Amino acid sequence: MDIADIEALIESNIEDAEATVSRPRSVDENHEDAHFAALVISPAFEGKSLVQQHQLVYDALGDHMTTDIHAMELKTYTPEEYAALDE
């Protein structure tokens, strides 16, 4: 599974989401393509706990979380929270 596929799944399954996915780790011979990190910004996260926000992302990725993705580092923000990071 490549980065563009993961971004597309997240963005198509979470309302107004903007996803930026990367590979944060150096190459691992056993799982070189399976470790990812995602920054996801969506108004759908408003009023949800961090665990609930992450669950939305996991749900968006569906079975890929158990078949194609070995590890996923997540940072989730509402648009307001993300904008406040620059202040």
TrEMBL record:
Name this polypeptide is given: BolA family transcriptional regulator
Gene3D superfamilies recorded: BolA-like
Family statement drawn from the similarity comment of this UniProt entry: Belongs to the BolA/IbaG family.
Family matches, as PANTHER family: BOLA TRANSCRIPTION REGULATOR, BOLA-LIKE PROTEIN 1
Database matches in InterPro entries: BolA (IPR002634), BolA-like_sf (IPR036065), BolA/IbaG_stress_morph_reg (IPR050961)
Domain of life: Archaea
